[in-house]
UniProtKB/TrEMBL annotation:
The lineage of its organism: Bacteria, Bacillati, Bacillota, Bacilli, Bacillales. It is an enzyme of class 1 (oxidoreductase). Pathway: Amino-acid biosynthesis; L-methionine biosynthesis via de novo pathway; L-homoserine from L-aspartate: step 3/3; Amino-acid biosynthesis; L-threonine biosynthesis; L-threonine from L-aspartate: step 3/5. Its EC number is 1.1.1.3. This is Homoserine dehydrogenase. It catalyses: L-homoserine + NADP(+) = L-aspartate 4-semialdehyde + NADPH + H(+). It comes from Mesobacillus persicus.
């Protein structure tokens, strides 16, 4: 019986992790799949550098050499950025290869097109590793919650930002000090923009939106804020009232519209994301039958990501959920946001009076005001009170100084 031939595109942390996992788990893979799994080819930038790759494996810097191989069953794509990954995957699908990818930016933009192309060529795409590393959120949504109507998904989808916020709180570090620590430990890149400005979490959220709701909101309608403006003083201040900062990505379906956001959020102790610390990722799913379930695990790194990709390898080969079944839900586009009220904490750094609110219920305490308002109202208040900070609050909070905004 012939073996299963795999090609790996890219040999950074993720690609190398997949290669090592396949080699160290050969017996287990053969027991599950009934055939041996062999890495037949690896696409690499410098093919002359010694990487400890088996001599029987084709090591090349030319993707065409891989396509010319007599047999490739699965292509594992572990390249950063949209191109050339998007082009390579299209060509591999057309050749009849199953695809496994960890490329969240490329997949968030081109996922629907690639799924359609894969269905036309009778192959599957595994993309579990695009969202939360070792946390099996996509398989959960696709296979375990078929009957449930998903109401809302919210989670910590970026381990780097979560580590920085955790270090700022636990060790009273400044943002720059915590970022430097993350870079020294290998959690943050030399250019950490994608992580700390919320782009990484945003791409992952768009992928989850497709799976949960069959479509995405217009990207320009999704508020995206990073964590660079959070100060150690703010973190210590909100901790006194039982809150912690987390970079929360949230998506929900409200009256036929998909509403999403990625931003620093205050989480109370009663919320399941409160105790997610360090580089951990966690996703909370709210279904109409099951209620709320929360998944937690390592969100990045060589082995957690490799684990997700190798699990995907098994799913696509044993006839897991086919690509043409993934987006059967009707696409729901976004129009003008509904006035969904949320709980917000305004942190007022000085003695200036809050503009736009005429009456308070109770007195202000330590320059904090708890508000119940919709996105549009908060946006207006931010413009009128640029010296103040506004953060959404998740979970229960017993706070008497509050005002309800009805506008």
């Amino acid at each position: 019986m012939s073996s299963i031939k795999v090609a790996i595109l890219g040999f950074g942390t993720v690609g190398e992790g997949v290669y090592k996992t396949i080699n160290t788990h050969k017996a287990k893979l053969e027991a599950v799949l009934g055939r041996k799994v062999e890495v037949a080819a690896i696409l690499i930038k410098n093919k002359y550098k010694n990487r400890g790759i088996d001599k029987e494996t084709l090591v090349t810097d030319d993707f065409n050499e891989i396509l010319k191989l007599k047999k490739i069953d699965v292509v594992v794509e572990a390249i950063v950025g949209q191109e050339p990954a998007f082009t390579y995957i299209q060509r591999a699908i057309q050749k009849g290869c199953h695809i496994i990818t960890a490329n969240k930016e490329m997949y968030a933009i081109h996922g629907r097109f690639l799924q359609k192309l894969a269905a036309e060529n009778n192959v599957s795409i595994g993309f579990e590793a695009t969202v939360a590393g070792g946390v099996p959120i996509i398989q959960t949504l696709q296979q375990l919650l078929n009957i449930n109507h998903i109401v809302k998904i919210e989670g910590i989808l970026n381990g780097t930002s979560n580590y920085i916020l955790s270090e700022m709180r636990a060790r009273n570090l400044s943002f720059n000090e915590a970022l430097k620590s993350a870079q020294e430990k290998g959690y943050a890149e030399a250019n950490p923009t994608n992580d700390i400005e919320g782009y990484d979490a945003f791409y992952k959220l768009m992928i989850l939106s497709e799976i949960a709701f069959g479509g995405k909101p217009k990207w320009e309608n999704v508020p995206r804020e990073g964590i660079t403006a959070i100060t150690a003083e703010q973190i210590q201040e909100v901790e006194k009232i039982g809150l912690r900062f987390k970079l929360i990505a949230s998506i929900q379906l409200v009256e036929g519209e998909i509403i999403g956001s990625v931003r620093p959020t205050l989480v109370s102790e009663q919320h399941p994301l409160y105790n997610i610390e360090g580089v951990e990722n966690s996703v909370s799913i709210e279904g109409d039958i099951v209620g709320r379930i929360t998944l937690q695990g390592p969100g990045a790194g060589m082995l957690p990501t490799a684990s997700a990709m190798v699990e995907d390898l098994i799913h696509v080969l044993v006839g897991g959920k086919k690509t043409n079944d993934l987006y059967q839900k009707s696409f729901v586009g976004t129009e003008e946001d509904k006035k969904i009220k949320q709980c917000w904490l305004m942190i007022q750094p000085g003695e200036a009076e809050l503009k736009g609110v005429s009456t308070f219920m109770g007195s202000e305490r330590d320059h904090h005001v708890l508000l119940e308002a919709d996105e549009l109202t908060i946006s207006t208040l931010r413009k009128e009170n640029h010296w103040a900070s506004f953060f959404e609050v998740l979970g229960e909070l017993n706070y008497k100084d509050s005002v309800r905004l009805t506008s």
